[in-house]
Design goal:
- The complex is a heterodimer.
- Chain A is an alpha+beta fold.
- In chain A, about 50% of the residues lie in helices and about 15% in strands.
- Chain A has a three-stranded antiparallel beta sheet with strand order 1-2-3, with no helix packed on it.
- In chain A, a hairpin with a 4-residue loop joins strand 1 and strand 2.
- Chain A is globular and about 35 Å long.
- Chain B is globular and about 55 Å long.
- In chain B, the strands form three sheets. Chain B has a six-stranded antiparallel beta sheet.
- Chain B has twelve helices and 14 strands.
- In chain B, strand 10 and strand 11 form a beta hairpin.
- By secondary structure, chain B is an alpha+beta fold.
- Classes of the chains: A alpha+beta, B alpha+beta.
- At the A-B interface, loops of A face strand 10 and strand 11 of B.
């Protein structure tokens, strides 16, 4: 379902088929964009680390945590 | 066209009649009510109001009343909007038509096929899942059902009301609450975690003519929609279409489902317009008007598309009416 998500200018991610929405921050928005581009989790960690100027370890923890949340909300399998 | 319709309640538990009436504003509307307290009577939507005998009194009482209304107001069509009266209208639709009043209803066979007690089998026909459901007619049945299904569990009436119970005490409380008001059987149902989505549609006996999908955003304590959003859910649309095509549904319906993002679970199919029907009209899919065209044998263009991410907002309105209208309706049974 994550591929369906449309994020508007208010950083609200909307799933058109289910009418559910989520408030996302800039990092989450970027991770979702990267997932949609088909990037692997490892690539996403590296890109987030580079773009947000944080250590690989910190990026890894945040990305893992975010993927767990996406699973909880049923947005990824 | 002179059209009569029922379901004029417009409280926080609204009936569909007002939404249907607002969608048919260009016609001469007659309201059929069971209670002079129904707010819809006083909203200025109807040129004439008649109190109706309760459906439990049987067809003869109904026939006498509807014949009188036909003679007095020359109604040409009737749209029943309440679950409790639909079996009577459906069973006697030919007789009603013979009185010169057109209807647009499913056959009795189709109507019974989507009965809550038959949904486990019916959902297989449609290729969708259905939460495990157990019919209960006694407290023992309820206790056994909670052992089979676990908690939380849905305790539902066969026609109205549904509550989620988290333990046996709550389940028993709801069991009495529903059965005291609506009788038996009751249904105990597995709780499906996911998003509740609904589709309002109109079938012509062969095909789906039009419809709109929504997700409820907020509900009242009774579970009635208070705000919603228009959605485009392909599996929900496909199964609604299949529902009409598989059994040859003629008339309005509401397909209630749960989606876990992967599968669709059929919860219920209401054999009428839901109370939020005017939202579909506001989205450009005027299903009551399409129904009237079908009633008149006119060609109707199918309408499956509508704007997405539009919000439906229900709100409270206040009005003033003459008390004399209220007393006239009670004493003379018409206004």
């Amino acid at each position: 379902m994550i591929n369906e998500m449309v994020i508007d200018e208010n950083n609200v991610g909307f799933i058109p088929s289910l009418g559910i929405s989520f408030q996302v921050n800039e990092t989450a928005k970027r991770i979702i964009e990267l997932i949609k581009e088909g990037k692997s989790k490892e690539d996403i960690v590296r890109i987030i680390s580079d773009e947000f100027n944080v250590s690989w370890r910190e990026a890894y923890i945040d990305v893992e945590d975010f993927f767990a949340k996406l699973r909880v909300y049923g947005l990824i399998q | 066209m002179k059209i009569a319709l029922s379901g004029l309640n417009n409280t926080d538990n609204p009936a569909p009649g007002i939404g249907v009436a607002k969608s048919l504003k260009g016609h001469n509307l007659t309201g059929l009510s069971y209670d002079a307290n129904e707010p819809g009577i006083y909203e200025g939507l109807f040129e004439k109001i008649y109190l109706m005998p309760y459906p439990t009194l049987g067809y003869e009482e109904f026939k006498n009343r509807i014949t009188y209304i036909k003679e007095k107001s020359n109604i040409e069509a009737v749209i029943p909007n309440l679950d409790a009266e639909l079996p009577l209208y459906i069973k006697y639709q030919k007789e009603i038509n013979d009185l010169g009043i057109k209807t647009y209803l499913p056959s009795l066979e189709c109507f019974e096929m989507r009965d809550k007690s038959k949904l486990p089998e019916f959902s297989k026909k449609l290729g969708v899942k259905h939460p495990k459901t157990i019919e209960i007619t006694s407290l023992d049945d309820l206790i056994l059902a909670t052992r089979t299904l676990g908690f939380p569990i849905m305790v539902k009436g066969n026609y109205y009301k549904a509550y989620k119970a988290y333990n046996l005490d709550e389940a028993i409380e709801y069991y009495y609450k529903i059965s005291n008001e609506w009788g038996f059987p009751l249904l105990a149902q597995q709780v499906i975690s996911g998003v509740e989505i609904n589709y309002i549609g109109l079938g012509d006996g062969n095909e789906l003519i039009g419809g709109v999908g929504i997700k409820k955003l907020s509900t009242t304590e009774l579970g009635k929609v208070w705000s919603a959003i228009s959605i485009d859910n392909k599996p929900l649309f496909e199964v609604s279409k299949k529902f009409v095509e598989t059994i040859g549904w003629r008339g309005a319906f509401e397909f209630e489902a749960m989606s876990d993002g992967k599968d669709i679970y059929l919860i219920e199919i209401n054999p009428r317009f839901p109370a939020w029907v005017h939202f579909s009209t506001m989205l450009g899919v005027n299903l009551p008007e399409m129904m009237i065209k079908l009633i008149n044998g006119e060609k109707v263009e199918k309408k499956y598309n509508y704007p997405l991410e539009k919000m439906y907002i229900r709100y409270v309105e206040e009005a003033m009416a003459d008390f004399k209208d209220f007393t006239t309706l009670i004493s003379k049974k018409e206004l």
